Amino acid sequence: MSTHIAAKNGAIAETILLPGDPLRAKFIAENFLDNPVQYTAVRNIFGYTGLYKGKRVSVQGTGMGIPSISIYVNELFRDYGVQRAIRVGTAGALQPEIKLRDLVIALSASTDSGANNIRFGGRNYAPTAAFSLIRTAYDTAVSRGWQPWVGSVVSSDMFYTEDPGEWKLWAGFGCLAVEMEAAELYTLAAKYRREALTLLTISDSLVTGESSSAEERQNTFTRMMETALETAIS
Ligand code: HPA
């Protein structure tokens, strides 16, 4: 039991998948895990533990944005001994060659967030994924014929920005996509000496203004989940 997660000791697996949406966590538990058991529903942020190919894996919502994921990941690492956390989410493409439904593996996460500004007193920290997870996720995706993009993303505090062209700054420095959580996940993994990874499906493009339908997202979601689960049990 921690402040925001009502789980008993040992109820959460050492490896966890982290979608933003708690109903997505429920969907993943019910459709991808064997014998899922719900361990928390505090604030309707659901968490489940089940089996994937016989190995224990948990899945839990994080909510949207850095302050929200920070609360859950702090408690998962500090209070439940989670060793490996894989975020599965969506992102907006920042490069013209990155198309809707493409899979992005986030090697690093730049951020405009206040969180690392506060934490590091205005110094810049470079939030980075675990190499072992990057390698496994990449090999898994490639072996199934799903060529992923691998590179830096931006974790932004603002979905609705005051300057609609702000993304171009990050794009100009090679960032592949924008989402809202990876930088905090990677920073906390470094602090607690754990492993973290972020896999993203492109749901919209800031370059073209298009966005994908829920139906289209479902197919690519399955590819991302298979990549995440194979990486989780590797
Ligand atoms: N911005 C921020 N986060 C996102 C986006 C976006 O355009 N798309 C999906 N997650």
Q: Percent of residues in helical segments?
A: 25-40%
Bound molecules: hypoxanthine
Which stretches of 5+ consecutive residues score pLDDT under 50?
Answer: none
Q: State the end-to-end distance.
A: 28 Å
CATH architecture: 3-Layer(aba) Sandwich
Determine the number of helices (DSSP H or I, runs of at least 4 residues): 7
What is the average per-residue confidence, as pLDDT, rounded to a whole number? Answer: 96
Number of DSSP strands?
A: 9
Count of discrete domains: 1
> Judging from the principal axes of the Cα atoms, what is the shape?
globular
- Give the radius of gyration: 17 Å
Strand content: 25-35%
Summarize the biggest pleated sheet.
5 strands, mixed, barrel
What structural class results from the helix and strand content? alpha/beta
- Within the CATH hierarchy, at the fold level, what is the topology? Rossmann fold
- Compressed to H and E, one letter per element, the order equals EHEEEHEEHHEHEHEH
